[in-house]
Every structure is written in C-alpha cells, then in structure tokens.
Design a protein that fits this description.
about 400 residues; alpha/beta; Alkaline Phosphatase, subunit A; Alpha-Beta Plaits; 2 domains; eight-stranded mixed beta sheet; five-stranded mixed beta sheet; 15 helices; 15 strands; about 35% helix
Length: about 400
C-alpha cells in the first residue's frame, strides 16, 4: 500500500538541494547583534575585483535578480526562479543553518567559547584521556598546529581549540596518535559536551609533517550533535524515499535520516558525486549536497581570490548538473550562512542566503521574494513529495508549478 502511494504521488520525482556553504548575499537586519554589520559575502567579494564576478550560468538562473552584485547582470528572462532566505534561528553556524534548511528551527544558538572551554569541561576531558591539553583557545587550525605542533610532538599533549563556530576541535599528529586514538578522544569529548555545553560539532583534526611545515590531513572526522527533533530527512526516509547526503551532510546530521552517506574531499568531488547520483539514482527521493570549500578554504581564511575561483568552478559545472536532471526533478541552490572573506573577521557572518530554484517541468522567472526562514525549502520539498510532515516554513511550490494544460 505504501509503495502504491509512493508511485502515485511522486511520479519518480527527485529533489536536489545544493548548499554553497557560506555563500551569503547580504547582512540580515539583526547582523549587528552578531558583530556582522556590513557583511555581504557575494556583494563585497565582487567589489574586490575590477570586473566583479563572472558567473554566467548562475546569472542565467537569476542570481543577479536577487541583489546587486558587481559583474552579475539581472537576467531579463531567468531560466530559474529566484529569491533569498532569512534565517529564523538566532544563529549563523553550519549545524543550525542546515537543520533549518531541513525544517527544524532552533530557539537558541549552540554554545560558543570565545575565551576557551571552562575547567568544568577541560578537567574531566583531561582526566578521561589521561593527559593535559595544549591551547584551549579560539584559533585558526593551520596557525595553531604550527604554533603548538612542536610542543605537542614533544609532550604528546593534544591541541584543543575552538572558533567563532560551535566546535570543540582536537588536533594531533598522526605519528603521535593514530587517527583511531584521536577519534576516541573526540568520542569522549562528545559524551562530555551535553546540556549547556552541547556544542554543534567535535572535530578530529589530524596533521602530519615536521616543525614549521605541519599540514592537516584528509582524515578529519566530525562528531555532530543529533538534531533534537525529526527533520525532512527523517520524514522522507521513513516514507520509503532515498535520502542521499553528499559532502558534510552525513556529519551535520550524524547520519540521521540518510539512506546513503557519501563523503567527499573537495567541491570538485562533491559536484562529481552529485552528477553521478543524478545519473544513477533511479528511485524517487532527495539528493542533499554540501560544498564546503567556499567556507573552509576561503571564507575562514579571508581569501577573496580563492573564493572567486571556487565560485567560477561551480558555475562552470552547472550545465552538467542541469543536463543530468530528469524532467520532474526540482533543484534548489542555497547557502547556510555567510563567511565574508573581505572583513577582518574570519568567522561566519549573519546573512541572507540566495535561493535559486530550477526544474525542466517548472516555471521560470518567478520572483520568490524574501523568505522568512530557510525552512521554506523543507516545506516546499515536503509538499513536492506530498508528505505533509514538515511543520515549519511556507512552501513556494505552488508559485513555481506550471498550470496544468487544458
């Protein structure tokens, strides 16, 4: 019976969400409260270059219709539908941003530690791992491993650090601690970080190399807090749909609600895996991709040139993504917060995120306006699959659905 309902209501439809991690499009009205007045990841980035940004395929979908961005024209007849979303949750981090995209609005931000972690956390952590730690300060990962790496190698003390995000990060040299031992330290920290100290992620940050030339490896692993309630991902998988997470999605949701979890090492790999799933996924369901390089490699490192290049590389891949879509597929391009690489801060920024919606069987050129919540995306996909499970957000599906032919 459930299978018959599935076939009747979905027509083998697939939805695709691609999160361009940190690609914000202007400060939210309350940005000053977060220290982010004037932040505008796309707008400020474009102003760094004489000719602005050149993203012809995103421009054709309608990116320039959302806001003024140097170098991006407002398409007269966009191929997609366009708007922007405000974040209703009082936060600007990856976890809560993605939870809201999946329909879960948070009433409080996850905790951050601008002065390092208190003794009530560090002391039991040291007791359980059997050694004291180095650092315990907010820091750039590349900077702190080179500053404290020699002492770590000499003493075996793990390096603990945080950032403007809700994270507890542990860095160890792979020749001092095998990665499985580092992962076990992270599991200990994850068990300790509860209640008011319920951080979004505990992150293993292994590195290799020699003094003055330490580099992080691809063996990073995130231990994320579970969503406190069911999300769109749970509702879809419980109803029998495929839910494929690509990139950081599995880490962000701790695997909850996913039927497949595909980890990737770069934007290029995430794009390739998305296209592969579009070509190979025969069942109806959701492909949910996070492309993290914008944020991790360029936003947090205040690297406008790298950020611009990453956007150009994604833009060049868009035709392949669109060509791999089936007739009834629905594509949503968005972000989870900002991370303006032109400001003194290296932290996330409290911004609107772009909303571009495309499908071969859908309308084009519809101005979706300013949405009150990222959860509008979840509510739209909820309606797309006829679930009626997501309680937050307002669907825009009717706005982009073509009238049936008479």
């Amino acid at each position: 019976m459930a299978g018959e309902h599935l076939a009747m209501t979905t027509l083998n439809r697939r939805a695709i969400i691609i999160v361009l991690d940190s690609v914000g499009i202007g400060a939210l009205p309350d940005a000053e409260r977060f220290g982010d007045a004037g932040s505008n990841t796309l707008g400020n980035l474009a102003r760094c270059f004489t000719t602005g940004l050149r993203l012809l395929h995103l421009e054709a979908l309608g990116l320039g219709c959302i806001a003024h961005i140097e170098g991006i024209k407002a398409a007269a007849e966009p191929l997609g539908n366009y708007g922007k979303c405000a974040e209703q949750s009082p936060a600007k981090d990856t976890i809560i941003g993605h939870w809201e995209i999946a329909g879960l609005i948070s009433s409080e931000p996850l905790p951050t530690y601008p002065n390092g972690f208190p003794s009530e956390i560090i002391a039991p952590f040291c007791d359980q791992v059997g050694i004291k730690v180095l650092g315990n300060v907010p820091a750039s990962g590349t900077e702190i491993i080179n500053r404290l790496g020699d002492e770590h190698v000499r003493t075996r003390k793990p390096i603990v650090y945080t950032s403007g995000d809700s994270v507890f990060q542990i860095a160890t040299h792979e020749e001092v601690y095998p990665v499985e031992e580092l992962y076990e330290m992270c599991r200990i920290a994850r068990r300790l970080l509860t209640g008011k100290h319920r951080v979004g992620r505990v992150i293993a940050r292994p590195f290799v190399g020699e003094s003055g030339r330490y580099v992080r490896t691809a063996n990073r692993k995130d231990f994320s807090v579970l969503p406190p309630k069911e999300t769109l991902l749970d509702f879809l998988s419980e109803a029998g749909y495929e839910v494929v997470g690509i990139g950081k999605i599995g880490d962000i949701f701790s695997g909850q609600g996913l039927t497949r979890d595909i980890h990737t090492a770069s934007n290029a790999e995430g794009i390739a895996q998305t296209i592969r799933m579009l070509s190979n996924l025969r069942r109806p369901g959701l492909i949910f991709t996070n492309l993290v390089d914008f944020d991790m490699l360029y936003g947090h490192r205040n690297n406008p040139q790298g950020y611009k290049k990453a956007l150009e590389e994604f833009d060049a891949s868009l035709p392949d993504i669109l060509n791999a879509m089936h007739d009834h597929d629905l594509l949503i391009l968005t972000a989870d917060h900002g991370c303006d690489p032109t400001t003194p801060s290296t932290d996330h920024s409290r911004e609107y995120v772009p909303l571009l919606v495309y499908g071969k069987a859908f309308r084009s050129g519809v101005n979706l306006g300013t949405r009150r919540s990222f959860a509008d995306i979840a509510k739209t996909i909820d309606q797309f699959f006829a679930l009626d499970k997501v309680r937050n957000g307002t669907s825009f599906l009717d706005s982009v659905t073509r009238e049936p032919a008479n």
